[in-house]
## 1
Amino acid sequence: AMYRDVLGATVSEAQGLPEHGVTTVFVNLDNTKLELLHPLGEKSPIAGFLQKNKAGGIHHICIEVNDIEEAVKELKAKNIRCLSETTRIGAHGKPVMFLHPKDCNGVLVEIEQE
């Protein structure tokens, strides 16, 4: 209710995304998009994060890029490790790639095709 009632955001209904191991709620503001995640089962990719961070917190940030394949190529040339060999379709139905936190100042970074 805080995002909708206090900040005026558009808030989606909860959506189960079993292929990603999460239930997500999308929060849209004029200049910001948030994804609120809840694990679907113990094997969810965010279950370990929540075990380490009982109060929750920021799991990752997402940066939109014009050309994800070119962005991945440039990042690899700069020795930024990707967490998969190829892009995959993310929660918004667009190609995404996650970058290794150790190469991004300890932050899990997702890049997403605009």
## 2
Amino acid sequence: MNLSTLSIRANSLLKSSDVFQRGNATIKLQETIHLDEIEIVENARCSDIIKAKIFKWISNEEEASGDSSRMQRALVDFFLKNFQFEFRRNNLVVALCESVLITGISCCICNPQEKLLAFSPLDPNIENAIAMSGATVHRVELFSKDGFAASVAMLEEAFKEANQSGVVRGVVFCNPVNPTGKMYSAEEIRSVIQWCIKHSLHIIINDLFMLTARESFLRHSGSLLNSPLVHWIYDLGKDFGVSGVRCGLLYSSNERVLQAVQALLQPFRLSALDQRLVTHICEDQDWIQSTFAPESQRLLAANLVTVRAQLSEIGVEVMGAVGCPFVWADFRKVLGSHTESAETRLRQMMSTCGVDLCSSQQFGGKECGWFRIAIGHPMEILIVAMQRIHQAVEAFVQQREEMSDNDANLLLAAGSESASASSSLDSLMHQLYKQIKTSTWLQENSADKWEEENPDLAFDYRARIDKHN
């Protein structure tokens, strides 16, 4: 028995993690410049504000109990005052982060190999969290022609398809969507929830960045949480950008599900120090409403304007809502050919120029040329990142044009040789025979060389051959 052999699940997780982490790396640093990670998707734009709040608490040795009951009261008050929604404390589970909660809820509503519907492109961290439970994800593909927007009609079609090969237990719905930045209205979310209830399907709502994004369906449709099929998740640590302090919340009216999740996640409860910190932040509603929330919204809006302006200069449009700390950037015009190999070469060129971004392939997207850019960072970091993206695009376009010029020169050379031949068929054939006999063109321009110089065309030809075979 080979003790080093991993399980099928572990190998799958390692494979997806390796692909994602290559695009989730840091901006490469110059010795005199310290740049944070551009692809950490949390609201780090107000890091100075939250740090000042925490350091003041530490330096003044303010007392904040590690008692979980006090923390839950503070959290209930936080949602009531910011979103006019009153939580029932007994319906709330607090754990380390959203991923842990997604795994926990998936374990408790799905048997192994049962399915959860999820819209794609999809954050692979969510898919991995579901995979840890033994459940599987059935992707519902979204496309740019529809603005990467989901609909009940798409769910209906995917539900019928997935049911033919297994059991569908529910839907995972993210707002805003990672990576596209699409922000759904309360009415759109309500229609999806009602569709799930109609089909007796669970729905896991991953409601991220609702404080900085100014909106949550809780404000208008929170009453739908009374359904035992609706399970709502929120990561306070990401919204406040408190790196290292993770506080994920699960709210559900399904008592049996809650009891099962609590039992499963006992090892993943918050430490006493984290409880004290979360309590301290959430109890200070004046600071949240007068300082953190408005300043966070203002700074993220400024970042979005800057990124849109910088990328528009190179013909790149972006999707993303105000208050969302990432955007979905359309580099398809830059690629020239919308192929996986072209997207990979652009991502490699960006890495060479000092900025690593996640591309559509890494989110399982079917449209090549889209890249996620985290914008929830200090302005000086974004400016450097935009400069490096500009450099990468310029270098990529130059490389692409050089490849095209080489192809054109080969065609012109072949045309000149043909034009010099006699117009008569006999002389043309004689001339062609002599050229083939004496020329070294075929040796110098082999199939391998053509494939090396035309990787996109070669990739497409192979794909079509494989399809017909």
## 3
Amino acid sequence: MSSFAPASSKKAKKRAAADGVDGEFFPGIEKIQYKPDAGPEDVLCFKHYNASEVVYGKSMEDWLRFSVCFWHTFRGTGADPFGFPTLHRPWEDGSDSMENAKRRLRAAFEFFTKLGVKYWTFHDRDIAPEGNDLAETNKNLDEVVDLAVKLQEETGMKLLWGTCNLFANPRYMNGAATNPDAHIVAHAAAQVKKGLEVTKRLGGRNFVFWGGREGYHTILNTDVLAELSHMANFFKMAVAHKKKIGFSGQFLLEPKPKEPTKHQYDYDAMTVIGFLKHFGLDKDFKLNIEPNHTTLAGHGYEHDVVMASAFGMLGSIDSNTGSPDLGWDTDQFPMDVKNCTMVMKTVLEMGGLTPGGLNFDCKVRRESTDLEDMFISHVGAMDAFARGLKNAAKLRQEGVLARLVKERYLSFSSGIGAKIAKGAATMEECEEYILQKGEPKAASGKQEKYEAILNHYV
């Protein structure tokens, strides 16, 4: 997850196209259809994703629960630290006006509808501009949310989750919940209060916290325990307000090891799980895993998905990828079928992601400047995950890997192994067992065999 580039000016310029509420923002692009026999250059159709097709007892739509993120898709400009914006959308007028915000939202809902997804996600500051103070900012947000409610009703779209941008405004340069200034922490809490309220109003299934600036650049000016404790208390305030307003959605924390801070407190899945358990928040939160963040932490693509699921803490997935050879968050579309297979294997093992989903926290490359590239990228990723789902289902149905893994740990089903597994063994018993049985024989891990088996299904 990352921010969007701010508008260049509050003063509106003349728009290029798509005049009026009923204007078409993506002319020439029809609703994406399922065409399994399409050729290699037919990229504006699904070749594998068939929403109603039943796989492993559920429809693809139910297993995959695809979502489009608003920030990259409709606030991304293609700008990077070395270059100016390259993505010039016809509905944008270059301003930070309410008119532009509403036009952008209408363009988004046309995109969602033509793509055929059921869910979307947003930051509060993606959809509505900040005002001169909190009251004006909240008024702006309410006005845009009025339109979002109307568009959801008209299209049947649902909000997978909302979140608050607590990292882009300069006030948060030293953090939000972990800021050394209590005034700023209070401002962040007030922002989250409103964010929760509008997410509830939009029927959000979840609410995400991503602490992009909750960390440090140097330990020399940082009281680590104080900051972590303040962050925990911040989350406890959020839990209390959630209960007060009757919001039934799931709270999610999103790990990331670094960027924009040198070290982010929510480093990876196990770090976040440890934090939540230490501060007594593990019953109130689950994790939103972004695989690009996982690889930035030095792990394999599916590692955090697997770890969070193993502890019953996987709530949702920001389905993207990065370039492992780079040291930053590139938020690319997930096109690697093997990676998608490994993710869906875990999702199938846990019976699904509901109320979470697969949110495309992805951005087209700054060189992919055509409007159709917005569709091509999402369609390709949806097809990759559809293939991953079918591969994972076959893996589960045939059970070859599961059987081999079970056999590998068979020694824990009886005798001393069963006592160790139950936590009932003692050091003395283990010593006596070795004295009687002698030196154990090392068994091959068969890594290459497991990899070859996986390749059979992908």
## 4
Amino acid sequence: SSGINAEYGALQFLCDNIYLFSKLGLIRIEQDGLVSLSSKLWLYADFMNIIRVSYEIRHEINEQIGRQESNLKHSEHSLYSTCRCVMARRPDLFVDLVKNLSDIWLPINSSGLARLSPGTVGFCGTVSSVLGAATIWQKSRKL
């Protein structure tokens, strides 16, 4: 899924650049159709990222449950404690999940599937940007 996801991301980036060239008057193109296509590509890429990260979290949780069952001293098998252990071991997964869950609302809003207030769009964009920057500042947060 990551290879196809990268292609959708690249197509979305291409659409954004063509849109920029159109806004600058360098080329003529129907901007509304291009914005719609770009939003759909962005939405698909974000959706695939969420599926990928969710799968990896599920895999890590299953591994943690296996470790807990093999350790006779560990008596607490709650989902909460299991998720805490996974989050402590793989914070990159949870950072990426929260980033993508914040990011997915932006193409949903721009494609017209939902109408979010400007404050909500700004908040989601800020969370996504800060978490994206955090992966640059701390390499351990990069998935």
